[in-house]
Amino acid sequence: MGRTQPYSESLPLVIDEVTLASPGKGEVLVEVTAAGLCHSDLSVLDASRPRVMPMVMGHEATGVVREIGAGVVNFEPDDHVVFSFVPVCGNCKFCSAGRAALCVNGAKANAQGTLLSGERRFTDSRSQTCNHHLGVSGFSQFTVAAEGSLIKIDGSLSPATAALFGCAVMTGVGAVLNTANVAEGSSVAVFGLGGVGLSSIMGAHAAGADTIIAVDQFDDKLELARELGATHTVNFLNDEPVKAIRDITDGAEYVFDSVGSSAVLIQAYEATARGGVTITMGLPHPEKMFSVPAFSITAEERIIKGSYMGSSVPSRDVPRYISMYKNGKLPVDKLHTHTIGLNEINAGFDRLAAGQAIRQIVTFS
User: Fold this and answer.
1) What CATH number has the domain bearing residue 50?
2) One domain for residues 123 and 257
3) 78-124 pLDDT, tens per residue?
4) 62 and 24 housed in the same domain
């Protein structure tokens, strides 16, 4: 990875025929029906988020169970599922405390490119073992996942919609409802309007925030944010965002950074009100640092919080967000901007990097 753009020419992702072993104990074979292209995938392509290689990519996906391994009790063939990009072991101290997004064993498996069992089930055409991407590997038509990577869903959802609940919605809405617990009547600002940032706009609207400020450089994304519930928009190419937010609110009570930039995180902090909360959902390069005035944290009772996977418990929150979608509170379909085939995936990442798409959905039909 780390190849230069355009990816349609450098081809960091190659299509290969892989051999997939049968599911082991506690594992499930899933036929993937749709997978989304996310900035977290893009960060692997541009090497800002290093991963072990070679790897079968894709982490936001949905599919249908085709086979179950020994000991699987919660799934059976023909179940429709959404993948969680943190496998949940259910036994570590964080899972026991209701903080599944911080699952110790899931994080370890993801870092090593394995399933929860520590095993890998893919072999490429050169007989080389391939790593799993966050326990999902959704850019493969068939994949094996740990039972703790799956959430059973209503099969009536279209695959293109269902896939979005596996990352964009779970992360963005979860950051609002779980991490920040945004209060009704409050003020919210969101920096960055990709799938996660726009999901945060939806979540803030559903939570009853009175003032919702969307910040980005693309006017079409700002317009979409208005459709999803934003009351104000700021194009940072035309207006200094911290000043604009403070002119509207004297500082927002909850400010979300979905960009994954330490510089933007500083801006988000500067735009946060006294007594307010700055929440970061983006993932900067591991070596990046940021600094804020230490005095302000105490004197203004400021809070800086990280939100990984929306602080979600997938088995609890994905069905809850799907219910909100069905009740008209989360217009998730508006995030879907393109449908592409697997052979278009590198061009799709060029489009994503250029800000010309929200969620592109890969289908295998």
Assistant:
1) 3.90.180.10
2) no
3) 999 999 999 999 999 999 999 999 999 999 999 999 999 999 999 99
4) yes
